[in-house]
Amino acid sequence: MTDLRVTTRNARFQQWEALLGNRTKRQRTGEFLVHGVRPITLAVDHGWPLDALLYPAGRRLSKWAEELLDTTPATRVAMDPDLLAELGEKDAEHAPELIAVAALPPDDLGRIPVPEDFLGVVFDRPTNPGNIGTVIRSADAFGAHGVIVGGHAADVYDPRTVRASTGSLFALPVVRADSAATILDWIRSGPVTVRIVGTDEHGTAVIDRHDLTGPTLLVVGNETAGMSSTWRAACDDVLSIPIGGAASSLNAANAASIVLYEVARQRRL
User: Fold this and answer.
1) Pairing of strands 99-103, 50-56
2) Which among 9, 55, 11, 15 is positioned nearest to 31, based on CA atoms?
3) DSSP at 247
């Protein structure tokens, strides 16, 4: 197969460049960019559909890059190294070996399984892409079955989100939902009775004194305003994390990670 070549800032390059910072373009084209050895490797390992693999023309590649180019069913694109560096958000000297152009999956809550030991996470209207990526990474690490990003929020497929997830975005279902009502209808219509547990510094119980071993949907609030009134009303329990020192509260992603660890700890016991 003959590789495509991109040596100028042509229309194809400009389309991929737009994926870096334009959420609307990502949604319209159904594509997003993936940077980094681990995220690209996990995308391939988990069978994520890749539309193209971009590599620097005229440069010697590692065994990892060569094997991916030879075995992955995606269009191979030899790109001018300076242009590839731009897409990799690097300087020319540090152009990446590979950048993947990946397909957006459907935002279908049915992608998330709800077994008897269900653990899911709702991140309610997050504004920081890095926090979304961190929550996805922690959810993957501590055995969650999926993550839902609800309401008006930063984009799951922003490059900053993808990088912060360190590839976990490709290892478990992550779905965007337009409202709390949509998510509640989904979780309440299933065959498993799931308790909805929120997190808040003024929660009525402390996480390590609350039973989290049953089917659980964990709700993490917006970084500034916390959970919406809809989610507060829907929660069966609202839990707090005891803290000290001068900190008045925890970063939303850090709080989610702590609660997810506590769930995993209780379930191990």
Assistant:
1) antiparallel
2) 15
3) -
